[in-house]
Design brief:
1 helix; mainly beta; 6-stranded antiparallel beta sheet; 117 residues
Length: 117
């Protein structure tokens, strides 16, 4: 059995008035079982995938993020928000991870070691 985590990041567009980055993360599982010479089992599955896009629009202080989770044949919204700031004031509208837990804020793809509970 082989398990792999794949992360692909692309910069779709970058300009003065807007930018868009796209990241794709996925957990892939490949299994191969040998029972005898004529009896092999082989399988490939995608356990979970995340599509993430973020950037800014209108001005660099107006940022957005969209994060979708594809798991078990369904799509769910993980994050969708718009941040806008001016001087020391800012506003965020949308749905996002509540910043109380290190495991929720730090993605496993960005950790140096396996550091989950």
């Amino acid at each position: 059995m082989v398990w792999a985590l794949l992360v692909v990041s692309l910069q779709i567009y970058s300009g003065e008035a807007a930018s868009a980055d796209l990241a794709i993360r996925g957990q892939f599982l490949y299994s191969l079982s040998y029972r005898d010479k004529n009896n092999w089992y082989e399988g490939f599955s995608i356990r979970r995938a995340r599509l993430i896009t973020d950037g800014f629009f209108l001005r660099k202080e107006t940022k957005y993020e969209l994060q979708l989770t594809l798991e078990g044949g369904s799509v769910s919204l993980r994050d969708l928000y718009i941040d806008s700031s001016y001087n020391m004031w800012g506003v965020r509208l949308g749905q996002w991870k509540v910043p109380y837990n290190r495991e929720e804020i730090n993605s496993s793809s960005r950790l140096e070691l396996v550091d989950r509970s």
